[in-house]
Design the sequence.
């Protein structure tokens, strides 16, 4: 696609439910980042993939959060047993990371509301 | 202390004023990004810098690698420039992770 695509754009769920958020990066981009942004705050790092592997998952807040990128392109962020505090906009960004550092491109985000 | 610090946190100015937003960082970097986020909107990349200066329209970004500091300037500011401006660095000391500043909220009054 032309840009980074995130689905769903909005998700409302009940406390305790399981949620999956999808990110489809720009074709050929090797690096993929997940962030979340609460109202009025800057993006908070969650996890970063280089290819298929998670190069850094130190930002995942707890073991209810997990992300995969099995084929090195599309990534899914999975949240188990959602809590109200998980409500935020989840942002995905991708770039080409090689000898030359590439521009960073963001998706529009997935707004998660946990009731 | 945050690894990427921005100042000011909030800035209100009159239309036409020259605006400067600052970013200091404490890690080794391979690149620095300036990003813009309008209220309720997505994040858009304005500049990516590894040295020197870049200009795009009324926007100018500079970086001083030795001082670990970057500035974003807006000339002849306009109400449509009102947005949050975010500095982000690609950290060589953190396995190329992108680290974000907390953003500067800019409001330009007509």
Sequence:
């Amino acid at each position: 696609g032309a840009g980074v695509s995130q689905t769903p754009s909005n998700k409302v769920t009940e406390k305790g439910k399981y949620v999956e958020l999808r990110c489809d990066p720009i074709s050929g981009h090797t690096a993929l980042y997940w962030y979340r942004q609460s109202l009025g705050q800057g993006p908070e790092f969650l996890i970063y993939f280089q290819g298929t592997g998670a190069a850094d998952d130190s930002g995942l807040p707890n073991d209810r959060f997990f992300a995969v990128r099995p084929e090195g392109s599309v990534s899914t962020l999975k949240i188990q047993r959602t809590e109200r505090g998980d409500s935020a906009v989840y942002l995905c960004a991708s770039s080409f990371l090689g000898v030359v550092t590439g521009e960073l491109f963001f998706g529009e985000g997935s707004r998660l509301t946990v009731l | 202390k945050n690894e990427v610090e921005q100042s000011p946190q909030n800035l209100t100015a009159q239309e036409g004023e020259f605006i400067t937003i600052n970013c200091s960082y404490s890690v080794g970097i391979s690149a620095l990004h300036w990003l813009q986020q309008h209220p309720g909107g997505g994040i858009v990349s304005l500049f990516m810098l590894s040295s020197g200066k870049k200009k795009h329209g009324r926007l100018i970004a500079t970086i001083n690698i030795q001082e670990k500091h970057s500035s974003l300037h807006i000339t002849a500011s306009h109400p449509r420039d009102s947005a949050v401006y975010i500095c982000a660095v690609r950290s060589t000391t953190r396995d190329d992770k992108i680290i974000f500043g907390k953003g500067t909220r800019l409001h330009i009054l007509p």
